[in-house]
Structures are given as C-alpha cells and as structure tokens.
Amino acid sequence: MARVSESCHNKLKYLIYSNIFIASEIKIQINSNFLQYFKNRHIKKNKKQLYNRYIYH
C-alpha cells in the first residue's frame, strides 16, 4: 500500500472532521426545529382541548 504523505493525510483528516462538524450542526438545527414544531403542535392541541372543555362542560 502506498504511503500517503503527511500533509495530504492531515488535509483529508481536516476535510472529514469539518464535514462531520457541519453535518452535526445541521442536525442540531433540524432537531431544534422539530422540537419547536412539536411544542407548537402540543400547545395548539392543549388550547383546543381547553376550549372544548370550556364549551361542552
């Protein structure tokens, strides 16, 4: 197997790690958006339930 030169190897490592970092950043953003969405949905549901309770009881 051919030996990869040190600088080339470091560049590869840097690229891989930066891609992982970017991917994890995106993942975090997506997760927070999902959380926000579910929270909003939950609040809407609860408001609806409270409203129905108020109307029908």
Present the secondary structure layout.
Layout: H1 6-56
Characterization of this structure:
The protein is an all-alpha fold and 57 residues long. It has 1 helix and no strands. 0% of the residues are buried. The model has no long low-confidence stretch (mean pLDDT 78).
Summary of the model, kept short:
Helix content is 89%, strand content 0%.
Query: Structural class given helices, strands, pairing?
Result: mainly alpha
Q: What's the number of helices?
A: 1
* Overall 3D shape: rod-shaped
DSSP strand count:
0
Distance between the amino and carboxyl termini: 78 Å
Helix content: over 70%
The Cα radius of gyration reads: 24 Å
* Major β-sheet profile: none
- The arrangement of helices and strands along the chain is H
Q: Runs with pLDDT <50, length 5+?
A: none
What is the residue-mean pLDDT, rounded to a whole number?
78
The amount of beta strand, in percent, is: under 5%
Which key phrases capture this entry?
89% helix; 1 helix; 57 residues
